[in-house]
Amino acid sequence: MRPDVQIWWLQAEDDFDAAEYNYKGGKFFLAAFMCQQAVEKALKALFLQEKKGLLPQSHSLIHLARESGVVPDKFSSFLRELTPKFIDTRYPDAAVDLPSRIYDAQNTEKFITGAREVLGWVKTKLK
Fold first, then answer.
1. According to the model, what pLDDT value does residue 55 have?
2. H-type helices in 1-127, by residue range?
3. 65, 126, 24, 32: CA torsion to nearest 10
4. What is the maximum span of the chain, computed from C-alpha positions, in angstroms?
5. What is the value of pTM for the model shown?
6. Residue 93 CB burial class (10 angstroms; 0-12, 13-18, ≥19)
7. Domains along the chain?
8. How many angstroms separate the CA atoms of 127 and 18, rounded?
9. How far apart are CA 120 and CA 123, in angstroms?
10. pLDDT for position 67
11. What pLDDT, in 10s, does the model give residues 7-17?
12. Closest CA to 85 of 15, 25, 4
């Protein structure tokens, strides 16, 4: 794996580890945020491998998936749902309530599961 790809992939793995840690610790809004971060960085690693150019300056997981040109459509719905978590998990006025009150074990578990699946798939594509 090239060094530029590897640094993004390693941070994606660390971010997902932080997501699981926060989920187990009951900080569900942080777990959701870290899932978004992990997937974003994994997709950026994949983009770098496939395109070998400058990274898109975007947090849109759908955009990153499309730009890489290899992410399967089966992830589209999940990526669309996860994308806004980089904002609504951090700001008290970005959603209908405080992030710490919106996220719970049940609604965050799908982000953990989905992120794990996406990262597993990306890992198989990285060389």
1. 83
2. 3-24, 28-51, 61-68, 76-82, 85-88, 99-102, 105-125
3. -10
4. 42
5. 0.94
6. exposed
7. 3-125 (1.20.120.330)
8. 24
9. 5
10. 86
11. 999 999 999 99
12. 15
